[in-house]
Amino acid sequence: MLLKAQYHSNKWTLEGLQRGMAYARQAIEADPAYAEAYAGVSAVYALLGYFGFLPPAEALPKAKAAALKALEIDDSLADAHMVLAIVRLDYEWDWPAAEQACKRALELNPNLAWAHSFWSDWLLIMGRHQEAMAEAHLAVELDPLSASLNFKLGQKLFWRGNYERALEQLLKALEFDPNFVFTHVILAHVYAWKGMFEESLATCEKVASLYGGSLYSRAMPGLILAIAGKTDEAKRIVDEVKGHPKLDPLSLISLAETHSVMGEKKEAFEILEAAYQERNGLLIFLGVLPYFDNIRSDPRFADLLRRMGLTQLQSPTSPS
Fold it and tell me: Which residues contact 304 (CB under 8 A, 6 or more apart)?
């Protein structure tokens, strides 16, 4: 039952997460003392909040509660410590507590690939880029067939400016799961950064077909067009998406990125402030996302990092 929960949850789609939650809850019903099942529920809630399928303020506290329940039953469960680290990293922005929880997970299970991947996130956020990339590579070595781990490695290679290696890694990830939507998302960005705008926009269409016509899939071409210098077309998409009554975390950050790329600092910071107030989990990567290079020197950028407790961040300018 729990393996089915993990299989569906790892798709990172609303349907997959809903099915993963159902299987994890069935496992708890069958055995109320099944610590791994509570950890499974916790992981699903964390992903539901991260991607905006549920409001972060609703989903992440539930993720934390389920993780703590799992640890109450079995404090040696590495998976539960890892999910606790995710909550502390993505939502609470408690960097020391996130570090402690992730190190505890790795201490309990040094071969837990996802713990290495999230430890890589923490290191990257802290500006320790070379260590972060080493951990991302190690995560893939431990679970080489994981589409999501291969995606995350490709994503980090892209953020670090290694476009050719990122492209290679993302295409490899698609071999394991050609329908893993977030691989296509970053692939579109890599194509755009390489000046391959036709391929990038075609990949955006693939994202739209896989992501069920989501608001984010509508916002995404705006960023690509902005990178291509087609600001009028980009602005039309931005205006359309902004007209939606409720923006999910991915769409909100995408709009901020688009405004930044177009040099519209005021609009970019207005959206980033809204994301900050909502405790948008994607903000933890603010210091390393290349889309914000145009506003990185603005005092408001430093102020936002300061309020998040990330004053030590460096600009990700040199590939590693």
Answer: 269, 272, 273, 276, 283, 286
What confidence tens digit (pLDDT) does each residue in 185-235 have? 999 999 999 999 999 999 999 999 998 778 999 999 999 999 999 999 999
Examine residue 199 and state whether it is found in any structural domain, yes or no. no
pLDDT at site 212 = 73
What tokens does 217 get?
């899939």
> 117 with 99, same domain?
no
- Could you tell me if 116 and 103 lie in one domain? no
Instruction: Give whole-number Cα distances, 98 to 46, 58, 87, 315, in Å.
Output: 14, 20, 8, 22
Q: Give first-to-last CA distance, the chain, whole Å.
A: 41
Mean pLDDT for all residues in the chain: 92
CB count in 10 Å sphere of residue 299: 7
Domain span at 270: 214-320
pTM, full prediction: 0.90
The tokens for 127 are: 């500006």
The answer as to whether 203 is a domain residue is no
* pLDDT category of residue 314 using cuts at 50, 70 and 90: very low
CATH, residue 74? 1.25.40.10
| CA-to-CA separations, 316 to 93, 141, 174, 223, 286, in angstroms, rounded | 20, 24, 26, 20, 11
Report the percent of the chain where pLDDT is more than 90. Answer: 83
Residue identified by tokens 């990122």 is 166
